[in-house]
Design goal:
With 269 residues, the chain is of the alpha/beta class. The chain has one domain (2-264): Rossmann fold (3-Layer(aba) Sandwich), CATH 3.40.50. The chain is 39% helix and 17% strand. It has nine helices and eight strands. An eight-stranded mixed sheet has the order 1-2-4-3-5-6-7-8, sandwiched between helices. Helix 2 (73-83) crosses helix 3 (96-107). The two termini are 30 Å apart. The relative contact order is 0.16.
Amino acid sequence: MDAMVSVKDGEVWAHDSGEPDGGGLPLVLLHPGVGDSRVWGPVLPRLTERHRVIHYDARGYGGSPAPTAPYSLVEDLIAVLDHFGVARAVLAGSSMGGATAISLALRDPARVAGLALVVPGVTGAEDLVSREFTAEVGRLAEAGDVDGIVALVMRTSAAAGTGDDAEVEAHVRSVIPAWFAVHPHHVPDPPAYDRLGELDMPCVLVLGERDQPEVIRTNETMAERIPGCRLIRLANSDHFPTLREPSAVADAILEAHALARSLADGGAD
């Protein structure tokens, strides 16, 4: 079921797969900044076979209108959960979506039963993105050079591609307008990097061994700081694991869900 969900001063597009037989904890998927919710497409079939899955486009991405006023990614996530009547869920977040999942888990842990973090970002990690990358994106953006931004992202974040990497390039190109649209309005959520040790729910973290070195190092440190977090390394993935190794990503998400479900059931299978 598709829906336009009301958020503060706007709305976002969302999809709810519905409740399969057996029910249980819903899964909520949060997309990266380098793609909209369509990046979950290769992973969705295995998840929806067994679980209720909700995914949505952040403001300015995919089917969601661009913001017109200050907004918070976490506040929007809470609005989506409330809209669909979800009191508690397992969150699977990729990159930007991972940062949002972590922020909600710290802000309101009662609503987060488990975390599946896929090449996650995190607020407050100064070394997550190199200064050179940030400066180059800024220069290209100021020049309005969309092709240059796409080429930069492909060169730095899509190293696992071989030959024609049209699918990944199409995802990146489609979200560049969102980068320009959201920048003036996005209000960053509070720093979480130094609070990762406070997380108290099952967690699986997936990193791509062909991602940017800064992302790999930060992801390794995140897995060390989050109590009990299991680190999974995908040898053939960069910053797009859902497109590079969707089966492995689905396995990781289902593992996090199973751990959360077991804990909710008091350790029973």
